[in-house]
Design goal:
alpha/beta, 5 strands, 20% strand, globular
C-alpha cells in the first residue's frame, strides 16, 4: 500500500492514517508513505521521520515539492527523495494499492 499525503501536518489528521499504516506493516504488508505538496514539511521533524522509518515504513518525499518549499536540505535521514519518474514507478511497479490522503 502506498499512502500519498499532501496536506500540511498542521492541517491534516496524520495520526489516523499513520495508525492504519502501522497496523498494515504489523500484518506484514509493504507500506510506503509519499509526501507531496505541504506534507513535505512533516519530514523536517526528527520525531516524525524517525517514527515512520523505525516502524518499517518506506518514506518518500517528492523532490520538486521539497525544493519549492526550501526544504530539501532539511529532510531527515531515512527519507527517500523521488522525482516525478520515481513517483510513477512507485505507483505502477512498487505498490499494489494506493491511498490518497488529501
Amino acid at each position: 500500500m502506498l499512502i500519498i499525503l499532501s496536506k500540511s501536518p498542521f492541517l491534516g489528521d496524520y495520526a489516523s492514517i499513520l495508525d492504519i499504516a502501522l497496523k498494515a506493516v504489523q500484518k506484514g504488508e509493504k507500506v510506503g508513505v509519499l509526501h507531496i505538496h505541504d506534507s513535505c514539511i512533516a519530514l523536517t521533524s526528527d520525531e516524525y521521520s524517525k517514527k515512520l522509518v523505525d516502524a518499517g515504513l518506506n518514506v518518500y518525499a517528492l523532490k520538486a515539492d521539497c525544493e519549492a518549499r526550501g526544504l530539501l536540505k532539511k529532510i531527515k535521514k531515512g527519507v527517500k527523495i523521488v522525482d516525478y519518474k520515481g513517483w510513477v514507478k512507485l505507483v505502477m511497479d512498487e505498490y499494489d494499492r494506493i491511498v490518497s490522503w488529501t
